[in-house]
Amino acid sequence: MVAAHQLRQRLGALVAEAFAAEGVDPQFGAVQRSDRPDLAPFQCNGALAAAKQAKANPRAIGEAVKRRLDDNPIFEKVELAGPGFLNLTPADGALAEAAASLSTDPHLGAWQRPVDERQTIILDYGGPNVAKPLHVGHLRAAIIGESLKRLFRAVGDDVLGDIHLGDWGLQMGQLITQLAEEQPDLPYFDADFTGPYPTQSPVTVDDLAALYPRASAASKADPDRRAAAQAATMDLQQGRPGYRALWAHFVDVSKAALEADYAELGVTFDLWRGEASVQDRIGPLTERLKAKGVVTESEGALVIDVAREADKKTLNPVMMIKSNGSVGYHSTDVATIEERVEEFGAERIVYVVDQRQAQHFEEVFRAVERAGLIEADRLEHAGFGTMNGPDGRPFKTREGGVLRLRDLIDQVVEAARRRLAEGGFSADEDSAVREDTARKVGIAALKFGDLSNPRTSDYVFDVDRFVTFEGKTGPYLLYGVVRVRSVIAKAGERPDPAAPILLTDEAERQLVLEMSLYGDAVEAAYRRRLPHLICDHAYRLAQAFSRFYTHCRIGDEADPAVRASRLALALLTARQLEAALTLLGIDVPEKM
C-alpha cells in the first residue's frame, strides 16, 4: 500500500492501472516530476513507448488513459499534450492528505528500504595516514562519507563507518629510521632491549608532522636511507618489538589529533581500524589462495592475476607478498575485505575514495572475487572529483603548498563570522552564542558547498560564495530553518501538527508538493550514492517556504482554521528541512 504522503507514487499506481486496462504494460504509467511545472506538477510520458510496443497511435493511447483517470477525485485535472504526454495536477484533497500523512510519519516522508532488502554495510571513508595532519585532500572523503553513512542508516541499513588508517606502509619505516637518526639513544632502536618500553610517546603529533617531511626527503635523496626505511618497514611488519612499540605511539598521538580535526566537521567513525589490523591475516590468506591456485609466483612476488581477455586496459596483478617479503596496499585491502566479511558480517562494502583510485579498486575487487571472499558486485567504489582552486587545479595555498584542513576550517569560520557581523545576525546574543553560530554557519557553508555538487564532479572552492546568505548555500538553508522557527514563535501559539490542512493559496500547494517529494530525493540519493540530491530538495523546499511566507499570512492570519493549517505547514517544513540537513551532517543554530 502506498502511503498518502508518497503522492507521486500514488499517482503512478493509478496511471499504471489505466495503462494496464488498455492492454499495455503498466510500467509505462511511471509518473515523474514535470519538466514543465507551469503546465502541471507531474507528467507521464509512457504513451509514446507503449504505442511503439503495441504498434498503436500514442495519442490514442494517451486519450484512452486520460478518460480512465478523469473521474478519479485524486486528480484536479488530467491534460493530454503533444503526441500523448499526460500532464497531471493532483486535487487539493490529495495534497492535504499528503501533508497530514507527512506530519505523522516518523521519517517525515523519507524513503525506507524494504526490511527484507536491508544490509550490513561497511562504509570506508577518511583514509588519512598516521603522522600526517589532515589537509584539504581529506575533506571530500570525510563529509561525503559521513553523509552517506547517515543516509544509509536513515533508510534502514546497518552501517559501520571505518576510517581505515594508513598506518602500515613505507612511511612508517621512514619515520622510524628518521627518528633513529635524530634520537638514536631511544630504547626502541636497541635490538637487545627487553622492555618494558616507555608508556609516554617520545614524539607529539606536531613532532611527527615535522619529522615526516625530513624522513621522506632523506629517503628520496639517499638510496641507502630508502633501503634502510624499507628494511625497517619489513621489520615492523614482521613484529620487531621496539618498532611495534614505537609504531603504537605514532598511532595513538595521531588518532587523538585526527579525532579533534574530524570533530570540527561533525565527522565520526565507528571503527578505527588500519592496515596493520590485518597483518596477521595476510600470510595465512595468501597460503590458502596459493593452495587453490589463485595466488601464483611472479618474479619472486606472490600475486593474484586479475587480467581478462576482454579488458581494454592493462590491469596490474594484485600483489599479496612483495619479493622482499613485505606487504602493500593491495594485500592489506584484500585482507581487510576478508576481515570485514568474517568479523562484521559485511554484505556490502562501499569505499568513498578519490575517483583517481578507480583502477586500484577494480583490481582489488576482481582479486577478492577470484579468492571467493565476496562477490564483486557487493563492493563499490563511490569515487569523487577534486576540490579545485580558482585556477581549476586541486586546491593549494597561495604559496603552492597543501593547505591543512584545520586552517581551511578556520578560514571558512572567520568568513562566516564577518558575514554574520555585516548582516547584523545574532547581534543581540552574547559572545559565546555568536561564536557557536559562526562556527555552525561556517561548517554548513563548507559542507554544503561541497555536497551540493555531484559527488563525481570536480568543483571550485569559493569561500565568499559559500558563506553568502543568498542562493543555494548552507547559510541560506540555516537561515531558512531559523526563519521558520521564528515565524512559529511569533505566532504565540503552539502549532497543532494534526490541524486540518486547508489549501487556499497556490504557494501552499507548492509547499506541500515539495515536501511530498522528499522521499524521492532520499531514495535517489541512496540508490545513486549522491548526497547532492538531498541538497537540491532542501533548497527547493526552502524556496517554497519563502514563497509561502511572502504570499500567505501565517501567525497573524485572522481565520483560526487557516492559521492553524499554515502553522502546521510551517512546523512540518522546519522538521523536514532539519531532517534533510541532518542527513548532510549539518547542524542548525538556535538563532541567527
Automatic annotation (TrEMBL):
E.C. number, please?
Answer: 6.1.1.19
PROSITE patterns with a match to the protein in the record: AA_TRNA_LIGASE_I (PS00178)
Q: What class of enzyme is it?
A: ligase
GO CC annotation terms, alphabetical: cytoplasm
Q: Which GO-annotated molecular functions does the record name?
A: arginine-tRNA ligase activity; ATP binding
Q: What's the domain of life for this entry?
A: Bacteria
SUPFAM superfamilies registered for this protein in UniProt: Anticodon-binding domain of a subclass of class I aminoacyl-tRNA synthetases, Arginyl-tRNA synthetase (ArgRS), N-terminal 'additional' domain, Nucleotidylyl transferase
GO BP, one example?
arginyl-tRNA aminoacylation
Where, by residue number, is the motif 'HIGH' region? 128-138
Q: Where is the Arginyl tRNA synthetase N-terminal domain?
A: 5-90
- Domain DALR anticodon binding per the UniProt entry, residue ranges: 477-592
What keywords does the record list, in alphabetical order? Aminoacyl-tRNA synthetase, ATP-binding, Cytoplasm, Ligase, Nucleotide-binding, Protein biosynthesis
Family that this chain belongs to: Belongs to the class-I aminoacyl-tRNA synthetase family.
Assembly and partners?
Monomer.
- Protein name as catalogued: Arginine--tRNA ligase
Q: Which gene encodes it?
A: argS
